Amino acid sequence: MQKEQKPIRVMLADDHPIVMTGFAMSLSAQGMEVVGQAKSPSEAAAMYAEFKPDVAVLDIRFGTELTGMDAAQNILRTDPKAKIVFLSQFDQDSLIKETYRLGAHAFVTKDCDPADLADAVRHAHAGKLYFLPQIAERLASLAVRGDVSPQSQLDERSLEIFKLMAEGLTNMEIAERLNLSTKTISNISQSVKEKLGVHRQAYITKLAVKHGLIEP
To answer: Where is 106: in which H helix or E strand?
Structure first.
């Protein structure tokens, strides 16, 4: 007699309850068991530790300083074999690439068909990567033309300063925020502008938004 398969246990994390409820209902309809619904990245990490789900589905953007990426890093730190699916309305190339680099098994957009999310969860549970056709195409294009994102061209300190520049902070304000001299910030910000080929504030902000570094 064939042993009955246990349903895949899924944890969801999203700060929009209506969206999360909708996905919970669609996954349940596919025979999966939703064991928890977290509303913040910190709650997601704590809930994962408590319920030990088979797969965690994490939104990337939350209305807090922390993101789904932070939650994933915390989860993977304690459980390197964690199966993670990222869910987002944002689909910037660099953001997609970063989720897979972090160790996620899938990236799906919030406007995807519920069946696609279920497929992503099943693939992740089996330890396989899952790509929506449009995501696979963008990643292939990125591999061919090369990654020109700020994340790929700047070191950690320069990227931190670039994000503050994009938010509209002056060199003096950035210096105070990071406890560095204004001259140091001035030199780094000039180097950042030259590396990225952007000099006007509007273009700096636009570039940061495009690559998912700040909220639009």
So the answer is: strand 106-109
